[in-house]
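So, is this right?
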Amino acid sequence: MRFFAALIVFGVCSYAGFAKAKAVKRRLGVVEGFLLDIKQLSILMQYKMAPIRELVRQLEGSVLKEFWEALLLQMEKTGSLADAWQEALEQTRRNGGDFFYLGDAEARVISDFGAMLGTSDFPSQKANTEMALERLCVQAEMLRREVSQKGKVYRSLGMLGGLAAAIVIW
C-alpha cells in the first residue's frame, strides 16, 4: 500500500513540475502570437486602408483566433475599439486556455496597444505599433530565457520533490 502511495505522490509532484514548465512555454506562445498578429495588423493598416473590423477579420485564422473573435464580438456590443479590446483581453484570460498563462506585464503591453489603436492618424498608429512590438519583443526574450533556464529547473524540482516525498512515505 505504501508503495502505491509513494508512486502516486511521485507522479503528482512530477506532473506539477512539468505543468509549471509547460505554462511558461504557453505564455511565450501567446506573446509570440501577438507579435506576429500585431505585425500583420500593421501591414494591413498600411496597405489596405480598411476599417479596423475588416482588418481584424483577416486575423481570425491566426493562433490567437479566440482573441480576435472575442474582439469582434465586443466591438459589436460596445462600439468602442479600446473598450472592446480590453474586454476581449480580459475575457480570453478568464476563459482559460493559453491566454490564462499570460502574465500581467505582457497583458499590460497588449492592453496599452489596444487602447491607442484607431485613435489617431496613421503615423501615430505606426509609432504605437512599433512601440508595442519592441515591448513585446523584450517580454518574449525574457520568456525564452525563462523557458530555457527555469523550465528544466521546474521539471527537475518536481521529480526530485516527488522522489523525496516517495522515499519518506515508503
User: Anything to note?
Assistant: Helices lie at 2-48, 52-57, 65-78, 81-94, 104-116, 122-169.
